[in-house]
Amino acid sequence: MSKYMTKQRRTLLSYLRGHADEQLSAQEIAAALRDERISLSAVYRNLAELEAEGLVRRSASNGREASYRFVGAEACRGCLHLSCKRCGRTFHMDAGSAEQLTQVVAKTEGFALDKSDTVLYGLCEFCQDGKKEE
Amino acid sequence: MSKYMTKQRRTLLSYLRGHADEQLSAQEIAAALRDERISLSAVYRNLAELEAEGLVRRSASNGREASYRFVGAEACRGCLHLSCKRCGRTFHMDAGSAEQLTQVVAKTEGFALDKSDTVLYGLCEFCQDGKKEE
DNA sequence: CTAGTTGCAAAGAGTTTGCATGGCG
DNA sequence: CGCCATGCAAACTCTTTGCAACTAG
Predict the structure, then answer these.
(1) Which residues are bridge partners to B25 per DSSP?
(2) Chain B: residue nearest A101 by CA?
(3) pLDDT of residue B115
(4) A52/A12 same-domain check
(5) Considering CB atoms only, which of B62, B91, B111 is closest to A111?
(6) What is the structure's pLDDT at B117?
(7) Same domain (yes/no): A107, A133
(8) Using CA atoms, how far apart are residues B47 and A46, in angstroms rounded to an integer?
(9) Which end of chain A is more exposed for a tag (fewer CB within 10 A), N or C?
């Protein structure tokens, strides 16, 4: 899709690779790269292209701001993502368990789960313990 | 939280009850209720309050528009939602299967899945067949 | 050199908020 | 009657788009 490899695209890709599978907003990325001279629109345009190429996944949980996630060619293939509602961190379910889970859904509901589009929300093992402050 | 039961709130609640567990945007709701004389801001304000009260769930899949889902007091307790990426319809996984799935995640990942906040994306049984047009 | 890309600023879309009016209790 | 909720419009935030300048190949 992209014809030229510009400085900005290189910068963005490098940044994304360093933050694979993290949920980042376009604005966060632009802010982190503000010293690299890349405009917000360039970030949006490149992210849109990367999404079309399948290298980036776009989603949103709050409904105000979209978040983008880099899915490296090989990394995280067939694994599901778990997002902690408290600390916000993303965890990775290994391919085996993810596949098992997908099978359950397929068998009981006849629903073909898309692993790369689905994010499971809940509390990670660390946040389950410190349930003090709510 | 809400002190008065206004005509608008009644209208909104009635509409939501008639569309329990559907993913609706604020604007869709306002449009559907345009004859009932309820303003867009009233819809937003009431939805926000209902969300705080736990009667409504807010989420978004595309990152542009938020969608709200009414979770009636009893309805859909402990069930997971499946959203078809093709036809957009929402399906309900029964409480039993959902619980089984939650157990798997808890056991293998130590992650406490929140059933009401999680939506599984994929293809429903109907759309899996008619895979023709992409 | 030529077409794709960038940056900027303006335009859009969705959501929130301030304020005067209106209506529930 | 007092106060909360509504409606309207303006303000905001995030994202997209038009266009001239720039640059990778």
Answers:
(1) B67
(2) B101
(3) 87
(4) yes
(5) B91
(6) 81
(7) yes
(8) 35
(9) C
Contacts of residue B57, defined as CB under 8 A and 6 or more positions apart, other chains included, come to B51, B68, B69, B70, B71, B116, B117
Choose the closest CB to B109 out of A67, A93, A108.
A93
Please indicate, yes or no, whether residues B69 and B5 belong to a single structural domain of this protein. yes
User: What is the pLDDT, as a whole number, of residue B132?
Assistant: 45
Please write the tens of the pLDDT for every residue from A44-67: 999 999 999 989 989 877 778 999
Are residues A59 and A107 located together in one domain of the fold? no
- Residue A91 pLDDT greater than 90, yes or no: no
What are the tokens at A14? 């490098």
- Kindly tell me if the per-residue pLDDT of A133 is higher than 60: no
- Beta strands A112-113 and A80-84, pairing class: unpaired
Averaged pLDDT for residues A58-84: 80
B40 touches strand C (CB under 7 A): yes
Q: Which of A74, A94, A119 is the last residue before a domain boundary?
A: A74
Q: What CA–CA distance (Å, rounded) separates B80 from B78?
A: 7
CB contact under 8 Å between A120 and B112, yes or no, is no
Q: What is the pTM of this model?
A: 0.81
Query: Are residues A70 and A87 located together in one domain of the fold?
Result: no
A85 and A126 inside one domain: yes
Domain range spanning residue B25? 1-74
